[in-house]
Amino acid sequence: YLQSGDTLVINDSRVIPARIWGEKVREGNFASEPSKIEMLLLKQLGDDKYEVLLRPAKKIKIGGKISFGDILVATVTDIVEDGNRIVRFEYDTGKYTNIFEVLNIIGSMPLPPYIKAELADQERYQTVYSRAVGSAAAPTAGLHWTNELLDKARAKGVKTAFVTLHVGLGTFRPVKVDSILDHHMHAELCMISEETA
After folding, report:
1. Do residues 9 and 142 lie in contact, with contact meaning Cβ atoms separated by under 8 Å?
2. Selection from 117, 112, 177, 158 nearest residue 138 by Cα
3. End-to-end CA distance of the chain, in Å?
4. Nearest-CA neighbor of 134 among 161, 160, 174, 103?
5. Which of 68, 155, 175, 194 has minimal CB crowding within 10 Å?
6. 92: exposed, middle or buried (C-beta count within 10 Å: 0-12, 13-18, 19+)?
7. Which residues of 95-111 are buried (b: 16+ CB within 10 A; e: fewer)?
């Protein structure tokens, strides 16, 4: 399909292991079973703050804390549209440079429901050209590309250009309205260099 003179525009976004499981931190002396919480990181907001999806979300109010073993604690600072939460992460900054180092230890890839197999190698859910860390899911349209296939296209005279579009909540949220005009599309961070433009 690609011919000499064509330009292949590639999304170089890299998926983070954005799915983590923790427990609601209980205040006081409660003897009840700990509440298991699943968290999906959606959008980085800076200063170790993230917009996240929680399941079950109703158990966690503003000020609520979720513990991920002894490595990470998340505190809910706000509740936004569609019930998503804003959380602030706390971890040992003397031991870890950033949240991504922590996620590489405790997180897993947020696989779509149509991928049934367990993922033994997390690199299998990255494109071969991924480099800009930030997606909550892979830009799956590019998963079939190999370095050999890219080299073959370039040898044929196909140019490549990179953009970064971090895949977010729009990938996970189904359309639940009769008219597509009533469906709220969530924004995703997109960056394009002057060279690519």
Report:
1. no
2. 112
3. 23
4. 103
5. 194
6. exposed
7. ebeebeebbeeebebbb
196 CB-near residues (< 8 Å, 6+ apart): 9, 161, 162, 163
Sheet holding 190-192, edge to edge: 7-11, 159-165, 190-192
Chain CA centroid to CA 105, Å: 15
Structure token pair of residue 177: 């309205």
Sign (positive or negative) of CA dihedral 165, 129, 49, 192:
negative
Of all residues in the chain, what percent are helix, strand and coil, respectively (each to 5)? Answer: 15, 35, 50
H/E segment holding residue 72: strand 72-79
CB 108 within 8 A of CB 120: no
